[in-house]
Design brief:
By secondary structure, the protein is an alpha+beta fold. It has eight helices and eight strands; from the N terminus they run H-H-E-H-E-E-H-H-E-E-H-E-E-H-H-E. It comes from Gallus gallus.
Length: about 250
Amino acid sequence: MLSPAALRRPLGAAARLARGSLQVLASLATGPRQNNGIFYEIRTYDIKPSKMKEFVELVHKCLHLRTAHSELVGFWTVELGAMNKAVHVWKYDNFAHRTAVRHALANDKEWQGKFISPVLPLIEKQHNEVAYLVPWCQLGKPPKEGGVYEWVTFQMKPGGPALWGEAFQAAINAHINTGYTKLIGVFHTEYGLLNTVHVIWWNESPDHRAAGRHRAHEDARVVAAVRDSVRFLESQQNMLLIPLACSPLK
């Protein structure tokens, strides 16, 4: 065991280098992140094909009971890219906050009786993820109501934002700079399928998006940024979302 005097001695060059290397590796392993505990729970429900209309009506009728407990970011049904699917996103201050909300919901007899009991027979499958906004993105809002949303999911190579963050941000900014679309948020998963990034875009209409994408693919800046970022990409998919009337993001 080292004596107290030995512990107070200045570190040698090798020890300082080793400690510095560990600090650098820790930084590279985690990468940049938001400096608060706020996270978003992304819930995806597969609805029975004959029950989507009934599901949407029940959500409109009872959602106020759920939003009394925590903040809803958006609630959509999927129009293209999947079928009979609903996506909703909830904001929490931290994990203790979510635990308290889930406990309160379990004991809310009105919520359980008016929504949970009748909705369960309408749902085939449920899935959830926990994600953080990437540090260079704040949650945005559309310039007006009445548009559509594109939800794009990127499966990135392992390594996190420290590996692919800079190139991915450049590709996102290149699309923003074309002006045809509005960025709502970029989320990086903490629970669920790891190394997943969800990007939400707003467009005036599906045709407006299609025309803008066509122009973007002819923009040399966009092409260069995308080519640089795809070296970190494993796969991607997208969905066209229609917001419910009760969704905060419309």
